Amino acid sequence: MSTTGTGLRTALGTFGVRPLDPPEDAALLHSWVTHPKAAFWMMQDAKPEDVEREYLRIAADEHHHALLGLHDGVPAFLMETYDPVHRELTGLYEPEPGDVGMHFLVAPTGTPVHGFTRAVITAVLAHVFDDPAALRVVVEPDVSNKAVQALNEAVGFVPVREIDKPEKKALLSFCTREQFTAATGVDL
C-alpha cells in the first residue's frame, strides 16, 4: 500500500476523500447512517433533513470536519475528524498537542468485499497523518463494538481505558504515526 496525493492505493483499489457537501450528500448519507449496520452511529431514526442539518452544523464548526470517502472515485465511506480539546472528549482525558479525534463509517453493501473495511480505516488514518501536525489519532468506540475495536488494533490503536460519554460507555484508544506505520506498512 502506498499513499499518493490523491489517496491510498491498495490491492482493493484507490481510496481518497473529498469535502462533504451536506445539501448534495444528505440523501446518500441518510441511507448510510440509518442502515441497521450503522447502529453505533446513533442516527437510526434520523430523517433526511436531520442528516443534512447535522452535517451543515459540522461544516460550520471549526473544530469538527466531515469528508466523503471514495473508493475508485465512488462514495463508499464517511470520515469525521475533530479536535478532542473542543469536541467529543473535552474533560474526559488529557489531550496532547497533535491529537486528532476520528470517526468513520463504511457504506452498507449487499456484496461485502473481504478486507474492505480495514482498507477504509487504513485510508482514513493515512489521510489524517498526511497532515504533519497530526501526531496521534484518538478514537472512542462503544465498548460493545468489538468489530471496530479489532479493526482499530489491526491498524495500530492501543486501548487505554473505558470512559463514560453522555451517549455511551467508550473505549478510549490512541494511535501514533509510528504505531500506524508499524501495523500497516503504509509509507507516510
From TrEMBL:
Give the matching SMART domains.
Answer: AlcB
What Pfam families does this protein map onto? Acetyltransf_8
Q: Part of which pathway?
A: Siderophore biosynthesis; mycobactin biosynthesis
In terms of PANTHER family, this protein maps to:
LYSINE N-ACYLTRANSFERASE C17G9.06C-RELATED
According to the entry, every stretch annotated as the Acyltransferase MbtK/IucB-like conserved domain falls at 18-65
Domain of life where this protein originates: Bacteria
What biological function has been recorded for the protein in this entry? Acyltransferase required for the direct transfer of medium- to long-chain fatty acyl moieties from a carrier protein (MbtL) on to the epsilon-amino group of lysine residue in the mycobactin core.
Q: What is this protein called?
A: Lysine N-acyltransferase MbtK
